[in-house]
Amino acid sequence: MKQKGIDSFSGKRIWIIGASSGIGEACAKSLINQNARVILSSRRVERLNTIAQEAKVDQALVIPLDVTNDDQLATAYEKIIKAWGGIDLLLFVSGIYTPLRADDFDIHIAEKTIDANLLGPMKAVGLVLQKMLQTQQGNIAIVGSVAGYSGLPKALAYGPSKAAIINFCEILYYDLLPKGIGVHMISPGFVATEATAQNDFEMPALISAEEAASEILKGIQKGEFDIHFPKRFSRFLKFLRILPYPIYFWIVRRFVKI
Questions:
Q1: Number of domains comprising the chain
Q2: For residue range 183-207, what is the model confidence (pLDDT) as tens digits?
Q3: Which CATH number fits the domain that encloses residue 232?
Q4: Residue 182 C-alpha from the chain's centroid
Q5: Ordered alpha helix ranges (H), 90-138
Q6: What is the pLDDT of residues 71-108, one digit of tens each?
Q7: How far apart are CA 101 and CA 229, in angstroms?
Q8: Can you tell me whether residue 157 is helix, strand or coil?
Q9: Which first-to-last residue range defines the signal peptide (predicted)?
């Protein structure tokens, strides 16, 4: 049994958490152009308001929030229910990335990363799931990363947070497929955003946020669970997962020059 996609985004109510920049902003603008009704959430309300200006009247709701704040998340969803009655798609894009290696490990950075990248989407899913189960329809899409496939340098907190997202999405898919609720696990490679601008190394197969948004939305429409891109990079990392550790570590040391 394969999950259904979304034939058209036109008129669909889509809550984008992390909409103010990067992939989230690109998805928001594309969905607005496709006549979707979008709820724009992130911490930066000024950026959200700028994006909302591109929408038609009553096509966009701006609801700022911090994903690590339980009360703000709950209040945001209450506003959505009151205004639009619910959502058809939760698109969780928000996340943080701080380069971190063992010789500069900071547990406080790790805690913030896990809070935003793992507990944040879990909390959002927890909010929307009850109504989706009642109606037996809806879609949940969570942006993780290929960094969750296996251990990579400078991702001592980020990598584990994204590995956990993969596990979370896999179990969600297993549980929700019989209920008619679509689940989409999104694993981008390197995308040119404010987060990756911190990297001081060459990023292979780097793509734009607009290219990433196109891949994500096409994958959701097709009903794909495992949305990963760019394929020339993500498939290579998938291959590395099946190799014995001595070979895996040798390849990483040889090709990751950091």
A1: 1
A2: 999 999 888 776 665 665 566 678 9
A3: 3.40.50.720
A4: 15
A5: 107-114, 120-135
A6: 999 999 999 999 999 999 999 999 999 999 999 999 99
A7: 25
A8: coil
A9: none
